[in-house]
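Input record, target 12 of the design panel.
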């Protein structure tokens, strides 16, 4: 099974990688032109564009900045369009395309005067939006300083990045994506994987919720929550969830993005707890999961406070600490489960969490821990999550299968114990009557019959005791024991009644099992309450076994005095054995998943209404 799972996982990983990367390449291969730039770093946030223009500030190549950014640092960026001026003259309006900055402004010329546009993620300006996982702002070829430069003043506040990794490019007005909602196929197919992933998540959420409602098992509820929050994290932008909740407030969008990751982690932690029953089977993992859960709660409280008060350096450090701690804890947990796994369910956790961690690590590596919405890095996360969902779709189904088998096992065991308990009620009843027969022979001074009776009784009781461990008996053995019993009772009545046991040809006694002593109470009733009280010597008992479909039919037919002639005391005594047998047959019906009337009693009468005896039909599922 797990070899097959391994092959499926590899194939799915390859297919998803090819699929998603093909779209990533399409995005990267768009006709955009890179713009060379230089940087001036300062911690003086009061510098103005006029100061920069008239101070001969020393801008440096971005490759010279070997340290990562800090939220307190301000960066002036000078974009140089010298090499593409002829291209810019071909259109009146262009769009500058760049990554996401927390705070920033674009400075250009407007009719000879300096003007600015807000370009920061977390500043209130409706023109600044994240479009297809990047920002765009308009400019014209006539708005350049010295006919070649644009200036940006920016702060990177939600992550620490190397300035040398920043990229700036420009696209024409005809190709820009600002305010476009994927109205054409070319626009739509760039985010098609997001919608496909969303569809997979929605199906999984509905299925796991249905399983939770039906089975009342919490692991299904928490896994549905886990997948739901994955859907919000990865495809929430395309589904307009962030926009509906927070409008253009990108600071709140970013906060929610971080919070959703904590919801994902918490739901997954609870899922693992219930899926593996860690409280019972893996106490060390249980303690580790509790630690991770407490960590999520603390980070949620602290990070919410940091973002609210815009203490971004605290936010960066606590989020990075949380991610590293979770990755280290998850890795340690995986190693422990691999070494100490108690069942095959562990491997689903190992496989699923492994791919999820790989996708998550790749995502944060390519975004350097930030990227509220970064398209290409999301493909790695989607691949890991998609494989995780595929594996656990199989894993949850496998667990249901195991639990159903376990449930059937316990039902069968309960049925066996119950049947043995019911047989314990029958056996004393039979033994009591047998001993009464022996006592009757002894008091009658019939030593020869008493000795024969004792010999047969000892053999019969030995067979019953030897078979008491097993619930069922071969029909062949059951008939032998029944025959011994009839011989014993025949001795008691001095052979005053005749009996026959008939077996139809389609009944294979050596291949069929039935509950032990299941028809003995009816045979006993026929002899003691029907034939014993009849006058004369014409006392007959016939027992017939036949097979119909998945049932053995046993007919016990006597020509005794009938049920109506039996005294009230005898009726109560007789019904006790029948009641126990009915209970055994009802339990057998449940085990065989059938619902039939097992016992049918026919009072035989002649044309004048006189009793001709009793016929009992017992229908036994096999």
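The sequence produced for target 12 reads:
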């Amino acid at each position: 099974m797990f070899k097959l799972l391994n092959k499926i996982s590899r194939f799915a990983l390859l297919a998803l990688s090819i699929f998603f990367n093909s779209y990533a390449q399409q995005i990267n291969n768009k006709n955009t032109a890179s713009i060379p730039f230089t940087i001036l770093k300062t911690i003086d946030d009061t510098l103005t564009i006029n100061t920069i223009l008239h101070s001969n500030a020393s801008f440096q190549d971005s490759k010279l900045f070997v340290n990562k950014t800090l939220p307190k640092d301000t960066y002036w960026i000078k974009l140089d369009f010298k090499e593409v001026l002829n291209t810019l003259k071909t259109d009146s309006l262009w769009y500058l395309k760049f990554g996401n900055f927390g705070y920033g402004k674009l400075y250009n010329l407007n009719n000879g005067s300096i003007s600015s546009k807000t370009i920061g993620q977390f500043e209130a300006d409706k023109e600044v939006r994240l479009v297809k996982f990047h920002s765009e702002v308009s400019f014209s070829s006539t708005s350049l300083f010295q006919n070649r430069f644009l200036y940006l003043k920016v702060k990177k506040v939600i992550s620490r990045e190397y300035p040398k990794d920043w990229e700036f490019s420009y696209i024409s007005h005809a190709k820009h994506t600002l305010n476009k909602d994927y109205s054409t196929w070319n626009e739509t197919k760039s985010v098609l994987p997001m919608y496909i992933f969303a569809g997979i998540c929605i199906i999984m959420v509905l299925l796991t919720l249905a399983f939770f409602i039906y089975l009342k098992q919490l692991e299904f509820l928490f896994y549905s929550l886990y997948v739901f929050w994955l859907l919000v994290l990865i495809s929430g932008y395309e589904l307009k969830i962030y926009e509906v909740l927070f409008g253009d407030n990108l600071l709140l969008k970013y906060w929610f993005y971080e919070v959703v990751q904590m919801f994902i982690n918490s739901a997954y932690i609870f899922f693992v707890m219930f899926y593996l029953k860690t409280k019972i089977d893996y106490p060390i993992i249980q303690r580790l999961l509790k630690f991770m859960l407490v960590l999520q709660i603390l980070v949620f409280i602290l990070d919410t406070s940091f973002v609210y008060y815009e203490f971004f350096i605290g936010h960066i450090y606590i989020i990075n600490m949380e991610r590293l701690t979770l990755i280290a804890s998850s890795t340690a947990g995986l190693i422990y489960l691999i070494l100490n796994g108690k069942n095959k369910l562990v491997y689903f956790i190992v496989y699923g969490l492994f791919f999820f961690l790989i996708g998550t690590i790749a995502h944060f590596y390519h975004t350097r821990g930030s990227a509220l919405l970064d398209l290409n890095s999301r493909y790695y996360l989607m691949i890991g999550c998609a494989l995780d969902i595929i594996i656990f779709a199989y894993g949850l189904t496998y667990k249901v299968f195991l639990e159903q088998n376990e449930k059937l096992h316990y039902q069968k065991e309960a049925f066996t114990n119950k049947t043995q308990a019911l047989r314990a009620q029958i056996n004393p009843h039979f033994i009591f009557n047998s001993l009464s027969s022996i006592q009757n022979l002894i008091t009658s001074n019939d030593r020869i019959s008493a000795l024969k009776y004792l010999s047969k009784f000892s053999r019969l009781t030995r067979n019953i005791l030897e078979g008491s461990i097993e619930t069922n008996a071969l029909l062949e053995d059951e008939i032998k024991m029944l025959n011994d019993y009839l011989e014993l009772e025949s001795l008691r009545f001095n052979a005053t009644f005749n009996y026959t046991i008939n077996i139809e040809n389609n009944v294979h006694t050596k291949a069929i099992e039935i509950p032990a002593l299941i028809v003995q109470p009816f045979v006993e009733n026929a002899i003691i309450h029907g034939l014993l009280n009849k006058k004369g010597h014409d006392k007959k008992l016939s027992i017939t076994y036949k097979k119909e479909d998945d049932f053995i039919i046993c007919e016990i037919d006597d020509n005794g005095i009938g049920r109506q002639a039996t005294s009230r005391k005898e009726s109560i005594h007789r019904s006790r054995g029948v009641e126990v047998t009915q209970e055994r047959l009802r339990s057998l019906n449940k085990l065989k998943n059938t619902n039939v009337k097992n016992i049918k009693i026919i009072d035989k009468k002649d044309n004048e209404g006189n009793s001709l005896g009793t016929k009992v039909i017992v229908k036994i599922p096999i």
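The chain has 17 helices and 18 strands.
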